[in-house]
Design brief:
three-stranded mixed β-sheet; Rossmann fold; 319 residues; 12 strands; UDP-galactose 4-epimerase, domain 1; seven-stranded parallel β-sheet
Length: 319
């Protein structure tokens, strides 16, 4: 099987590459941006074919599609930061929408029988009322930021190309995903890094935090990429599937889990710079549709995920 991952150097892309390379008889290709670090791929770069490619460049995409002739395409390349999407809304929409059109056009022209996984987000649902939880795929999307709008548009493009050309696009709406290699701009990784710094004697024994009342559903990235692999094979095109653990917790509970990984007496300090307005205070979902279609279920408990995340930062800070 020939597989292509756009955005392979990122957090999820690199873990997906790890998982796919563990399968038998797979030839893996991946795209990255010129300025992008390939640190996440150092341990496997000799096992795959890497190509510099900007999804905004139709010619570059055509070339990599013609070279790789993939049976499966995992489309992960995107502007995926919600806060940043308010700062650069035009660029976010162009990358996530026009970039998807470019990919679908390349696939339509050169590999019309391929299966394509479009990585969407729970952000498309918007601010669901607590009384309406858990979120199912039947909830009407009401995106409340430019990133979410761009992801919903991406989904509809996938539907368009399926109904017009028969191009088989699978849509996964991922909820919060975390684990080793997650950038520190994301909350669990931020807290894990601070604890690792304390453990290594690199900072004072205090952890600076923001909001603790939000409720979130986290899935380990290694479970998530396993779901990607099953979904692209077994899920129906032109239908959305929620990817989540089904376990929703307050951020205070998650902080306590991380603090329990250290024997240090760590002081918790509220940092106003880390306190952001919570547009979506409650996030809880069900993965029943995905489980029924694929047999997938999460195997890694959040407690282990957080321990692995702290250990990742210890190793990175020590290197």
């Amino acid at each position: 099987m020939r597989v292509l991952i756009t955005g392979i150097a990122g957090f999820i892309g690199s873990h997906l590459a790890d998982y796919i390379l563990s399968q038998k008889d797979v030839e893996l290709y991946g795209t990255f941006l010129k300025y992008e670090s390939l640190e996440n791929l150092t341990h496997i770069k000799d096992q795959l074919v890497l190509r510099e490619c900007d999804i905004m460049d139709q010619e570059q995409l055509d070339n990599i599609i013609k070279e790789s002739l993939p049976d499966c395409i995992f489309h992960l390349a995107a502007q995926s930061n919600v806060v940043l999407s308010w700062q650069i809304p035009q660029k976010t929409v162009r990358i996530n929408v026009e970039g998807t059109v470019n990919l679908l056009e390349s696939a339509r022209k050169h590999v019309p029988d391929s299966r394509i996984m479009l990585a969407s987000s729970r952000e498309v649902y918007g601010a669901v009322k607590k009384s309406e939880l858990p979120i199912t795929e039947e909830h009407q999307p009401k995106p409340i930021n430019p990133y979410a709008v761009s992801k919903l548009a991406m989904e509809f493009l996938g539907y368009n190309y399926y109904y017009k050309y028969g191009l088989k696009s699978i849509v996964l709406r991922s909820f919060n995903i975390t684990g080793p290699r997650r950038p520190e701009s994301f909350v669990c990784s931020d807290w894990a890094k601070q604890v690792a710094q304390i453990e290594l004697g690199l900072k004072e024994q205090e952890i600076r935090i923001g909001n603790l009342n939000a409720i979130r559903d986290f899935t380990d990235v290694r479970d998530a990429v396993r779901a990607y692999w099953l979904a692209i094979k077994k899920c129906k095109p032109a239908e959305p599937y929620n990817l989540c653990s089904g376990r929703a917790l307050k951020m205070k509970e998650i902080l306590d889990m991380i603090l329990s990984l250290s024997d240090k007496d760590i002081k918790v300090v509220r940092d106003e710079k880390k306190v952001v307005k919570i547009d979506v205070p409650y996030v809880a979902s069900t993965n029943k549709k995905l489980r029924k279609a694929t047999g997938w279920k999460p195997k890694i408990r959040l407690e282990k995920t957080l321990k692995d995340l702290v250990d990742y930062w210890k190793e990175k800070l020590n290197s």
